[in-house]
Backbone:
């Protein structure tokens, strides 16, 4: 089977931005906050771990992200750049102002527009959206929601979801299982 066929397993990597400064310089906007030294360290460490050999994150069957969607806030773009810089192959990513302060439905709108031949997508954003997106996609009653609730979604947390859909346009609530939930230190 062609691994890039539309009906292959799809993975959604949901990443909350790394630790950011509590506030930016005087007069700056919230979306202009930058990563702290800890945030830069965590994002780089996650990227290095993802770039390491298989299996990714010690989880067989995961496919490294091929495309990234990102909020246009400085801290999310910095997080994405640091994580993706470690990958052996360039991963294209687009940042969108509309993903800053967006709800899960807005993220899903962008996700549903991803080309059907892409098997794995990274989304970098903010809480509470990243937590709620993960929660909504998980199948109710599967136990994955209990895991998410117990562990939370701290800065630089990563949820890797296996989606039971034939195309990105089919992603909907309850169509995913949690392949892994990771948090610093990486």
Residues:
């Amino acid at each position: 089977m062609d691994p890039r066929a539309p009906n292959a397993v799809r993975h959604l990597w949901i990443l909350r931005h790394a630790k950011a400064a509590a506030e930016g310089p005087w007069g700056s906007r919230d979306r202009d906050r930058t990563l702290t030294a800890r945030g830069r360290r965590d994002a780089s460490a996650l990227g290095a771990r993802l770039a390491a050999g298989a299996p990714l994150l010690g989880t067989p069957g995961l496919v490294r992200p091929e495309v990234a969607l990102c909020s246009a806030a400085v801290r999310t773009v910095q997080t994405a750049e640091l994580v993706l810089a470690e990958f052996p192959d360039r991963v294209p990513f687009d940042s969108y102002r509309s993903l800053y302060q967006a709800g899960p439905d807005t993220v899903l709108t962008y996700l549903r527009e991803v080309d059907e031949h892409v098997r794995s997508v990274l989304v970098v954003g903010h809480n509470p959206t990243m937590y709620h997106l993960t929660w909504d996609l998980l199948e109710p009653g599967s136990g994955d929601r209990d895991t998410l609730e117990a562990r939370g979604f701290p800065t630089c947390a990563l949820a890797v979801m296996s989606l039971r859909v034939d195309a990105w346009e089919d992603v909907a609530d309850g169509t995913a299982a949690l392949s892994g939930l990771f948090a610093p230190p990486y």
